[in-house]
Amino acid sequence: MDFATLIGVVGAGALIMWAILMGGSITQFINVPSLIMVGGGTMMALLANYPLSRVLGMLAILKKTLTVATSDPLAYIGKLVGYAEQARKEGMLALEEHAENEENEFLRKGLRLAVDGNDPALLKQIMQTDIDQQQARHLEGRKILESGGTFAPAFGMVGTLVGLINMLATLDDPSTIGMGMAVALLTTFYGAVMANAFFLPLAGKLESRSREEVLIREMVIEGVMAIQSGDSPRIVEEKLKSFLMPSVQQKLEAAKDGLAA
User: Fold this and answer.
1) d(Cα 105, Cα 112) in Å, to the nearest integer?
2) First to last CA, the chain
3) Among 36, 130, 83, residue whose Cα is nearest residue 225
4) Burial bucket for residue 164 (CB in 10 Å: 0-12, 13-18, 19+)
5) Burial level of 162, CB count in 10 A (0-12/13-18/19+)?
6) Contact 165, 151 (CB under 8 A)
7) In the 8-state DSSP scheme, what is residue 77?
8) CB burial string 27-52: b at 16+ within 10 A, e below
9) How would you class 181 by CB atoms within 10 Å of its CB: exposed for 0-12, middle for 13-18, buried for 19 or more?
10) Which of 98, 142, 162, 181 has CA 20 to 30 A from 221's CA?
11) How many other C-beta atoms are found inside a 10 Å radius of the C-beta of residue 159?
12) How far is CA 127 from the centre of its chain?
């Protein structure tokens, strides 16, 4: 579970609730027709803009933003350096068992291609295609969420206009203007909340998650190719470290120094 996403979404909702309760009652912010107008309108707009299967697949996208799918890059460096040591001592075929039992599907695929003796350029091409397709799927998921963040405020505004028009068309008691406008503005409120506390933050988290996964996969490609070319474990490690931020590299070196001490 990605607690940052959960804390962010729940915390934003809690802050909005706190602001509401500071100024009045929660009941005055509840209007079912306005909720249906904004929520239903946003969903209909998404269906009009994207294929049905992609919109229904949004549940899987939401799951991705809430679960921790990214692995520790340091763990991958350790694993690839270990494979390099074994390949250096026993040859590439010694990695055949790892190629079948490796937990990570992408790394398992890379090891299989390397153990089978495929051309390094072909290996890189096949695995890079996987990354490209993954990025395309993530980009489409992010676009759906960003579209939700655009449509929700728009339908909130439409709902407010409809409410104002209905109020003015049936205006025969000036004392009801305040209540009528408050109800009309609720749709704008709902649209803003949906966009800024749900759709747009989750779109940002999905983009961040995608970058992290791509980094790991590019690191795996570099590591597998280095192992296949017969690089020493030290060289493999140095190549993979270049993918890390300087602070993470220092953390890795500190951990090694701690083990050596």
Assistant:
1) 11
2) 35
3) 83
4) middle
5) middle
6) no
7) H
8) eebebeebeebbeebbbebbeeebee
9) middle
10) 142
11) 27
12) 21
| 191, 152 contact by CB (below 8 A) | yes
Distances (CA, A) of 150 to 51, 193, 234: 18, 12, 49
- At 100, is the secondary structure helix, strand, or coil? helix
133: left (phi over 0), alpha (psi -120 to 50) or beta: alpha
Spatial contact of 77 and 237, defined as CB atoms under 8 Å apart: yes
- The one-letter code for the residue type at 80 is L
Q: What tens digit of pLDDT does each residue of 57-88 get?
A: 777 767 766 665 556 888 899 999 999 999 99
**Model confidence band, residue 25 (pLDDT cutoffs 50, 70, 90):** confident
Type of residue found at 253 = E
Token pair for 258: 């701690």
Exposure on the CB side of residue 93, measured as CA atoms within 13 A: 0
Are the C-beta atoms of 113 and 104 separated by less than 8 Å?
no
- H helix or E strand, kind and range, residue 168: helix 120-169
Give pTM, 2 decimals: 0.78
| Cα–Cα distance measured from residue 192 to residue 202, given in angstroms and rounded to the nearest whole number | 15
Q: For helices 200-228 and 3-23, what crossing angle results, to 10°?
A: 170
Instruction: Report which secondary-structure segment, H or E, holds 119.
Output: none
* Cβ contact 34:183 at 8 Å: yes
- Give me the phi and psi of 69, to 5 degrees please: -95, -15
Record the tokens describing residue 149, joined without a space.
Answer: 């963040």
18 residue type, one letter: W
Instruction: Name the phi and psi angles at 40, rounded to 5.
Output: -65, -40
Do residues 38 and 181 make contact, with C-beta atoms less than 8 angstroms apart? no
CA diameter of the chain: 91
